[in-house]
Amino acid sequence: MNYTWDFTWVWRNSDVLAWGMLVTLVLTLVTVAVGAVIGVLVAIMRQSRLRPVFWIARIYIEVFRDLPVLVVLIWLFFCLPILLGPNASIPPFWVAVAGLSLNFSALQAEIIRAGYEAIPVGQLDAASGLHFNRWQVLRHIVFPQTVWRSIAPTLGQAVNTLKLTALASFICVGELFYVTGRLIQDTFRPLEFYTTLALLYLALILPLAIFVQLFEDRLSKRFRHA
Q1: pLDDT tens for residues 166-225?
Q2: Are 145 and 158 spatial neighbours (Cβ–Cβ below 8 Å)?
Q3: How sure is the predictor about 1, in pLDDT bands with cuts at 50, 70 and 90?
């Protein structure tokens, strides 16, 4: 079968693709912001000495880290309106934010835990020898190092979340993957639009991925010479 490529269809619908890119970016930013806040709270709970609080955080992390994101999105999309009542109406965008944030926050909590546990024990012992109180230890040792060690993997997870936003198309969120599918249905030009879709995702993700890699390299040098 001969197929004649015609990218003029892409140009004619560039405004629709641009809108899809904008929705993708906004969805990513909101998800990362919400997920980061929840992740910090869960990480604090994970370090609690109260066993019920500890286990709530532990179960939360395991459930939403292990469940496929698509399953969570579809479950929330169909079940939340039923659970919240017959008059409940939740826009698909916010359902997507909720589902993606649950996954991001669970992974973020583990990132923070790993950053905390990477602090050398000798530094904490030295602080104890200098008679630092608990607040001084948190302020001068635990908090700065945990944050610095968590930044790079958090940025990496943000890049992964940008890719996961494509799953929001399954609940009719008008992000880039969804609008591309609609354009293909309207124009019957799958090769042109899927090729453009791949290039647009690369344009969004590749600069962020390179930045994360450079930041990780710089951070590793910082801790190597610390």
Answers
A1: 999 999 999 999 999 999 999 999 999 999 999 999 999 999 999 888 887 877 776 665
A2: no
A3: low
**What is the set of domains in the chain, with CATH numbers?**
10-224 (1.10.3720.10)
| Euclidean distance between the first and the last CA atom of the chain, given in angstroms as a whole number | 63
Token pair 């929705």 in the structure block, residue: 23
For the chain, what is the radius of gyration of the CA atoms? 22
Q: DSSP secondary-structure letter at 131?
A: T
How far apart, in whole angstroms, are the C-alpha atoms of residue 134 and residue 132?
7
Angle among Cα 170, 102, 115 to the nearest 5 degrees reads: 135
Average pLDDT over residues 135-148: 72
Residue 144 pLDDT? 75
b/e burial code for range 12-32 (CB count within 10 A of at least 16 → b): ebeebbeebbebbeebbebbb
Q: What is the pTM of this model?
A: 0.89
Beta-carbon neighbour count of residue 72 at 10 Å? 20
